[in-house]
Design a protein that fits this description.
Length: 361
Amino acid sequence: MRTALVIGAGLMGTSAALALAGRGVTVHLRDHDPTRSRTAAALGAGTDEAPEGPVDLAIVAVPPAHVATTLATAMREGVARGYLDVASVKGGPRRELAALGADLSAYIGTHPMAGKERSGPLAGSADLFEGRPWVLTPTPETATEVLNLALELVALCRAVPVVMDADAHDRAVALVSHTPQLISSMVAARLEEADETAVRLCGQGIRDVTRIAASDPAMWVEILSANPGPVADVLTGIAADLAETVESLRALQSAEDGARRGGTAGIEDVLRRGNAGRVRVPGKHGTAPAAYEVVAVLIGDRPGELARIFADAGRAGVNVEDVRIEHATGQQAGLVQLMVEPSAAPVLAAALRERGWSIRQ
């Protein structure tokens, strides 16, 4: 691939353009808002000048509702040898494109499983897709050349290709992406009118659950509008679990021993099923999640403290598998939770104590 045209200079389009431009591909940028393509060009994502002739690959990075018409227009213009989109929904846009009479042999639907809470070209990053799954949804009609161009794009962005059926993809993202967004927003919405004393008690749990609730509502309305059925199906199951959980909690308020036992069993059931589901979430390097030991260290909010603690862990010969920071409310300090192999936890704790760190149980 020597040339590419990115249509849509938002987060996804700009990030793909930055990755391609950084690896020697000549990238042209187009957006319905010229200021966005100019901004992306100024960031080093390519040029906002139109290509002189057909490019190797056109990458359509627009909201799902506009994917088919944007692709059809680009195909009529003959701007590229191959065409793909990076929208988060795949089945609907492909059917719309077919209904518009487009040549589906020149097209492949794709979806990089990456993103941020922020949007727009200024949020773009050349490493956004690095190490992340990038779904490809070829059909028997997809030309080999187009599939190869898509695979080359994924490689240049240092992502991991995953081949799926388009409708299976839409059901999958309804479960692992779209529904979590709604649940996160629903939980965060409870905080809007909460008493200030309750909000001040927010810890890492509520921060984890509500992190993605900061996402752009307009963007998510477009995504959810393109995949409403599968998301509603997942939420129906969650609603049933929620109703049973509410009933179990009410039973725990009962004066009858039998009712309380039934309530306890109901709560335990949903928690155990949650444990079983959580175990299936891939861990480090895509493998099954490991049972790490946590070494919690009190750390001051000063420049260089994180670098120092990681350097001390390195000197102890311990590999930190994961890390989390829990900030202390109203204090210039927090807890750094270092996740390590269980056998390494005592070694790390002892080494850090030796170097003056305060270890918390």
